[in-house]
Each structure stands twice: as structure tokens, then as C-alpha cells.
Amino acid sequence: MSTATSTDWQTRPAPETAEEWIARAAEVAAVLAADAAERDRAGRTPYTEVQLLKDAGLVTLLGPTEHGGGGHDWPTAYRVVREIAKADGSIGQLLGYHYLWNRAARLVGTREQWEHIEAEAARNRWFFGGAVNPRDKDVVVTEDGDDLLFTGRKSFSTGSKVSDVTVLEGVLEGTDQHVFAIVPSDADGLTFHDDWDNIGQRLTESGGVTIDRVRTPWSSAAGYVDKVFQPRTYNTLNVPTIQLVFVSFYLGIAGGALETAATYTRTKTRSWLHGGHERAVDEPYVIDIYGDLTAKLWAVEALTDAVAAEGQKLHDHPDAVTEQARGDFEVRVAAAKARATEVALEISSRIFEVTGARSTATAEGLDRFWRNVRTHTLHDPVAYKRREVGRWVLEGELPEPTWYS
């Protein structure tokens, strides 16, 4: 991977507008795209790729400007994730998850907690990982004086070895209270395993983690004051917020698949010998498929951008978020998630119809787009997203806030 562009970023002014940040992300994506297929096959831990994100300033996009951050909002972050995922779905996921965990303290914690975390993260260019798999209920949190001890195991810990800090989640012993805390990724007792061996999103470092009496002060427990959690409706926005992260890198992967396929079609695909055309780009069915897939992608991108703008209004006034507003937003997110899933799977599969048999060569790496989308879209069943929308339409029913809705 070339580092020339990375060096150049150190001497250029930081982006200011949303458009400038998205353009910076496109520059990073161009570097990533150069050897994306090769890196996917190698499956090496993406230390260099994460450093690229740091050098470009993307990791501090949401951070406070007074501490060196970009001071931008979620709609911009989602677009940046989309750009990165066009080149590399794994790195797009890592960056999107980083943004969510970077804002976890603001979503769940007290003002004092999140102001401290966001300042430190921006100053030190922390990259966040998270050991927060809600289906694993085997992390127990115990008290030890003024400290908490996290003990157990999580099957998935996205970011793991490439992160500077990790968000831990567990259940306080003897209660049903969940506790979130941010700890250094090299903390004693935190062991990341090299057991992520899936068909897609190969570079996300999403393997399991053993958590053996990882110690952190009670004061780091997000949202707890005097050992009592302070609930707000805003706390529950973490789910629709990360679901839009998912949507963003699904759309990015789909867009990257279309762009890569179009380049292949223009330069390598041969016209069909019985079609009557000298060039593949003049084949009517090829033109039709590209037009169809592009229209579908643009439509769901427009929906997603609109939903992201709606969500930002809630983030701007966290104490004013009501159950109704939160529920309506989740339904809109569910609709975007359903459409993005279907469109990304269709695009990443159908590109082979317009690139031809030779495009299936391993060296081309076109299969990585479908493998990446197929792997992550199984995170939670899309049928349940459509159910949220259907129940809202028929009965005005709001989705119950859970780990997935």
C-alpha cells in the first residue's frame, strides 16, 4: 500500500466542510482500492489501513474542534464510511464501528464522561474497538471497592488488535443492569483471539476476546452516578445509529462493486459473439442492467441521506428525545436497512452478468463485494426490520428498544 498520499495529508490543511471531508475519504479510498483484492486474499491484520485513517484525520471527524477533531455530524460520518467502503468493505466497517464507539459515551454516559472521552480521543487519535455482542451474556461485572472487574468472553470484538481502546459491556453481578466502560486495548486481562475466519469482511478483526478480571474505575461506568444508572430515552439511540452505520457500508460496498464492474466492462468484457455489437458497452442488456442497478442504488442512498438528517435532529437535542420520536426514527432506519440489504446483495451478485465469465478469476477479486455484503447482512434478520415498518404502518406500533431495534 502506498503511503505517499498519507504523507501529503500531514502538510495540508484539515478539511472543514462536509464536502471536503467526503473528498478526503475518497482520496483514502483510492489508496485502499489499489490493492484491495490482494489484501482481502491475504487477510492480514490491517494496522497499515487504520494508520491511513488516522493520518488522513478521518478517525477524529466527530471529535470536538477545540481538541483537534473535525467537529462534524453523523450525516457526514455516514457519507465518509460509504466512501471508504467503496474501496474496502472491511475498513469501512471498522471506521463506522469506530464512530459509534467513539460516541458511545455521549449516547449512554454523563456529560462529564463524554466530554472527557471525546477530548482524549481527539487529542490522541484513538481508534475504538468494541466487545459488545449482546447475544453473549457471559461477561459478569463485579465490584472491587471503587473498581469494577469485567470477566467472561465475547464471540465477536470488532476492531480488536487494531484498536487503541475497547468498549466493554457486561452485566453487573446480581442484577440485570448492563455496564459499559472504555478500557485500553492492551489492558491486563484482555486477550484477543485470531479466530475470525469468515468468507467476508475478512479484515475487520472481529474475532473472539477473553476478558479476565479487566479492571476499570466505577467512575468509568457509562451513565452511572453514585453507582446508579441514569436512564434517558436518548440512550436507546445507539441501535438505530449503528444500524445506519451498517447501511452506510452496505451502500459503499454496492457502489464500489458497480464502479469496479463498470471499469471491467469498459476495458475487459468482450461483447457476445451473436449480439451484433463490437463492444460490450453497446450491448442493450448490459446498458439496461447498469441503468437498473444504478437507479436502485441512488434511490436507497437518497432515502438513507434523508433518514440520517432526521436522526441528526435527535442527536442535536438529546434531552428532548421522546419515545415517539425515537420509535419513528427507528422505523425509518429499519426501512433503509431493508432496502440497502436487498439492493447491495442484488448489485454485488448481478455485476457478473455484465462482466462475463472471465471476471470470476480470483485475481480480479470481484467476488469480495458479494462476500462482504452477504457476511454482514446476516448480523440481524432483515425480515424483522420489515416487520417493524409493517407494524408501524398497520397499527402505529413503535419498535420496542432492544439490542437490535
Automatic annotation (TrEMBL):
It comes from the Bacteria. Pfam families: Acyl-CoA_dh_2 (PF08028), Acyl-CoA_dh_N (PF02771). The keyword Glycoprotein does not apply. The keyword Metal-binding does not apply. Keywords: Monooxygenase, Oxidoreductase. Residues 244-379 form the Acyl-CoA dehydrogenase C-terminal domain. GO terms for molecular function: monooxygenase activity. Residues 28-116 form the Acyl-CoA dehydrogenase/oxidase N-terminal domain. InterPro entries: Acyl-CoA_DH_C (IPR013107), Acyl-CoA_Oxase/DH_mid-dom_sf (IPR046373), AcylCo_DH-like_C (IPR036250), AcylCoA_DH/ox_N (IPR013786), AcylCoA_DH/ox_N_sf (IPR037069), AcylCoA_DH/oxidase_NM_dom_sf (IPR009100). This is FMNH2-dependent monooxygenase.
